[in-house]
């Protein structure tokens, strides 16, 4: 499955994306359908289907730290930003490779969806 996964192919460089930050285990890139002025995705390089199957809490921590760096680099850390992890079909997950969205650059309403 991982060889056909869109995000695995982005992480490996097979499919181009606008990479904005990376670490040893994670990659952050601009969302191709942005929902806010700042909209990036942070993914692990390793294929993990969703938060339901994630077993390495350190990996999620690294994703979160990279997301915070993306927010700082984009200039939205002080004004505020949102970290979103959609899980499963009903949760709005459309690519089944665990990822988080970094959203900012405008007031974000609550509740989402």
Could you estimate the helical fraction of the residues in percent? 10-25%
State the secondary-structure class: alpha+beta
Q: How many β-strand runs?
A: 5
CATH topology: HIT family, subunit A
How many distinct helices? 2
Which strand-content bin applies to the residues?
A: 15-25%
Low-confidence stretches: none
What integer is the average pLDDT? 96
Overview features:
2 helices, five-stranded antiparallel beta sheet, globular, 113 residues, single chain, HIT family, subunit A, alpha+beta
Folded structure, characterized:
- It is a single chain.
- This protein has helices at residues 6-11, 57-74, and strands spanning 19-22, 26-30, 38-44, 81-84, 100-104.
- The chain is an alpha+beta fold.
- The chain has a single domain (2-104), classed as HIT-like (HIT family, subunit A, 2-Layer Sandwich).
- It has a 5-stranded antiparallel beta sheet with strand order 1-2-3-5-4, covered by helices on one side.
- Strand 2 and strand 3 form a beta hairpin.
- The radius of gyration is 13 Å and the shape is globular.
- It starts with 5 loop residues before the first helix and ends in a 9-residue tail after the last strand.
